[in-house]
Amino acid sequence: MPRGYLPDEYTKGQKVYDAKIVGRLLKYAKPYIGLMIIAFFLLIMSSAIEVYLPTLNQKAIDKHIVHNNILLYFGSSDTLRDRLIDRYGGGMFIAGQDSFIINGNILDKSDLKRAQDLGAVLPVKFLIIDFKNTPVDLRSKVKKIIDSNDRLFIKLRGKAGETLEAAPSKNFFFPSKVSKKAPDYALSYGNKMKLPREELKVLMSGDIRGISKIALKYFILLIISLVILFFQIYTLNKVAQNTMHDVRVDIVSHLQTLSLKYFDKNPVGRLVTRATNDVNTLSEMFTSVVVNLLKDLIVVVGVGIILCLMNLKLALILFIIMPLFFLVTTFLGNKFRSAYRELRKSLAILNARISEDFAGVRIIQSFIQEINAFIRFDKTNMNYFKSSMRILLVNAIFRPIISLFRYFGVALILWYGGGQVIQESMSLGMLVIYLAYLEMFFRPIIGISEKYAIMQSAMASSERIFLLLDTEPDIKTKENAYLPDEDQIRGKVEFKNVWFAYEDNNWVLKDVSFVVEPSGTIALVGATGVGKTTITSLISRLYDVQRGQILVDDIDIRNWDVNTLRRTISIVLQDVFLFSTNINENIRLYDEKIEDHSVKSASQVVNADEFIDQLPKGFEEPVAERGATLSAGQRQLISFARALVFKPKILILDEATANIDTHTEKLIQDAISVMLSSRTSIVVAHRLSTIRKANLILVMHHGRIVERGTHEELMQKKGYYSKLYKLQFQSNIVA
Ligand SMILES: Nc1ncnc2c1ncn2[C@@H]1O[C@H](COP(=O)(O)OP(=O)(O)O)[C@@H](O)[C@H]1O
Ligand SMILES: [Mg+2]
Fold first, then answer.
1. Is the CB of 533 under 6 A from ligand 1?
2. C-alpha dihedral sign at 395, 396, 402, 403
3. Distance, CA of 698 to CA of 532 (rounded, Å)
4. Which helix (H) or strand (E) holds 165?
5. Do 92 and 100 touch, CB atoms closer than 8 A?
6. Percent of the chain residues past pLDDT 70, beyond the cut
7. CB 508 near ligand 1, within 6 Å
8. CA triplet 697, 698, 701: central angle to 5 degrees?
9. How far is the CA of 354 from the centre of ligand 1 (A)?
10. Does ligand 1 have an atom closer than 6 angstroms to the CB of 652?
11. Are 714 and 707 in contact (CB under 8 A)?
């Protein structure tokens, strides 16, 4: 893997949770704490509804669909009768001498068993007809049916007692209430068959209404939870987006305070990633993981507790498979994590490759390297493909295994619970609710690996973001800095024994000293890479020197207000950077204080107006990205105008005329003279016409000033300069 393609952050940062990072993230969310509380509250509400819904199923089944009313007959056992009446009297309805109708779900398992052993439970089930629950308009009809079939019905004659202890294992959610009055009739399932369908329907109208009511309740709760969900998603995303917005603002404004040194070390692509992708990962974590995690936690814990309370034995079955399940999840989760890491890594490389190839498309095409570039791309692409396939594979193994566990759990519950239902020690509704909760219990665990991966990359992203935010700007204005008025500035520049290195002790400038008086002009001459551009960057304090001093107006630039210092200096570089806006804005750089006429007159001075006026929209002509639609010379003219419009006291031209043809050069030659005459100028040029006019020429070699003087003096010296001059003079003739 070529170094540089892979930002080092992709090779480390495997943390899933880091309290310090989370704490800092929360600080960003703090201004939106109110919204967060609302979101949290909504979350609890929607989770509660989710947990509540299955109980409606149970109610519908146990109360209205499967009637578990049994007939107890205590021919011989008074003690059992008395005990039962003592405990369940409020739910026992007198059917005759020593016989009672009771809902079997109320009975405790042991009581039921005893009654069964004594032969007190008759193997018949009953429907109960209660006029109270019969719709008023149907009551007379019901009475008529009963009257005309009175042999089939058992008339109930009141309650056996006043107390009622419902067995919790069978009736967890709806402990039966003691009804004020006993129901009116009981009808055995056997006799039920003897009635015509129409009549049955009338008799059961209470249950039918009950089911409709439950269905309606279900529907209303669904609507409510929809509304809650809407607000929950809305509030939460609002918090997330606001937070992300703030983080992004912080990143960009912080980046702008950092010195060029930082930007030298961090490629633009990486910084862009910081402000966009990394921030998005955070938001993803917020909206999809944190929330779901919270909700899942509520559901898993809540449902887990309910399951235990409902039926400890069934719950134990669950807890037997849980450890196994976690083992598998952890194992595959690890595989998942490394696969995701691979994926992110290869994606980063792929992105870098693509963007570089397209940025360099001009070179690639002109050197006919398309095929090679494509082959290289294809290799990277293949790697990405392979990592994607690995994720797919892990997923393809993981999901079925999770499903297996889930259905294994379902099967166990069906096997054990089904037996219980048949033995009447559990109601059917309870089994149904148990299965529903089982589903709920497993659901959060299914997505846990993805969430884990998101959490992990979010932690890594935040770590990178905070690392960026923690980078102290190494160049900033001191307290009580020198802050002169504009007309106070004279523009004297002095280097005093300056040593400078971009890195460590790799000295680029060695003991450089010179003085430029206000309005004076010096020229820097020397081969490529001797440090000319470096000198120009140091004056604007884009970097700080390691040794020595740079003074402007006899004040160390480290004591200047940085903005004032930089405003004093204009720089024209060989590589002109144009922004994708119009020409006007490119000259004044969005500075509202600079008016249109200033832009125009600056352009006139450098003769840029000539070509600008010929453009269809003149100064309003849009400029493509990096000024791709303009010629190098035209871009240079714009940068001259830009330098001038800011009325600098100090002007720096760094090989600024290198891109300009002879015709254009003639155009701006006069302009340059005008520009140089009225201000301090530092010129890096190989056009001798400019250099000749300089008050002082500094000849540089290996980071040192090896000769200094005027053109004539240096020529007489017959040293380095005269050699250089002759070389160039000759080459000019040859050209
Ligand atoms: N941002 C930078 N980081 C590290 N080294 C740099 C940087 N810019 C320039 N250099 C190195 O500093 C030396 C001087 O560069 P520069 O001042 O641009 O030379 P010149 O303008 O005279 O051609 C060169 O050896 C170059 O490789
Ligand atoms: Mg240079």
1. yes
2. positive
3. 10
4. none
5. yes
6. 93
7. yes
8. 145
9. 28
10. no
11. yes
Which phi and psi angles does 585 have, rounded to 5°?
-65, -30
Ligand 1 binding pocket includes 502 (Cβ within 6 Å)? yes
Fold entry, domain 491-734:
Rossmann fold (3.40.50)
Please report how many Cα atoms fall inside a 13 Å half-sphere around the Cα of residue 141, on the Cβ side. Answer: 14
User: Are the C-beta atoms of residues 609 and 603 closer than 8 Å to each other?
Assistant: yes
CATH of domain 8-31+232-470: 1.20.1560.10
For 244-290, the pLDDT digits (tens) are 899 999 999 998 888 888 887 777 767 777 788 788 888 888 777 77
Distance 535 CA to ligand 1 centre (A): 10
Measure the CA–CA gap between 54 and 299, rounded to whole angstroms.
13
pTM of this prediction? 0.72
Residue from 262, 500, 506, 508 whose mutation best tests the ligand 1 pocket (most atoms within 8 A of CB): 508
The answer to whether residues 540 and 568 touch, using CB atoms and an 8 Å cutoff, is no
Indicate which atom in ligand 1 lies nearest the CA of residue 536. Answer: 17
CA of 623 to the centre of ligand 1 (A): 29
Burial per residue of 162-181, b for 16 or more beta-carbon CB atoms within 10 angstroms, e otherwise: eebbbbebbbbbeebeeeee
Residue linked to tokens 């089939």: 152
Domain residue spans in the chain? 8-31+232-470, 58-213, 491-734
pLDDT digits (tens, 9 = 90+) for 4-19: 444 444 445 456 667 8
CB 364 within 8 A of CB 370: yes
CB 148 within 8 A of CB 162: no
- CA–CA gap between residue 331 and residue 389 (Å, rounded): 19
CB of 432 shorter than 6 A to ligand 1: no
Q: Are strands 521-525 and 680-684 parallel, antiparallel or unpaired?
A: parallel
Residue 682 CA to chain centroid, in angstroms?
48
Beta strands in 44-178 (DSSP E): 69-73, 93-96, 99-103, 121-129, 153-155
Q: Quick check: CB of 536 below 6 Å from ligand 1?
A: no
Condensed to tens digits (0 to 9), the pLDDT of residues 319-349 reads: 777 787 778 777 877 777 777 778 777 877 7
Integer Cα distance of 134 and 184 in angstroms: 11
Beta carbon of 575 within 6 Å of any ligand 1 atom: no
- State whether the beta carbon of 512 lies less than 6 angstroms from ligand 1: no
Q: Do domains 8-31+232-470 and 491-734 have the same CATH topology?
A: no
Contact between 279 and 241 (Cβ < 8 Å): no
Distance of alpha carbon 406 from alpha carbon 383, whole angstroms: 35
547 C-alpha to center of ligand 2: Å? 22
Can you say whether the dihedral through the CA atoms of 225, 230, 235, 237 is positive or negative?
A: positive
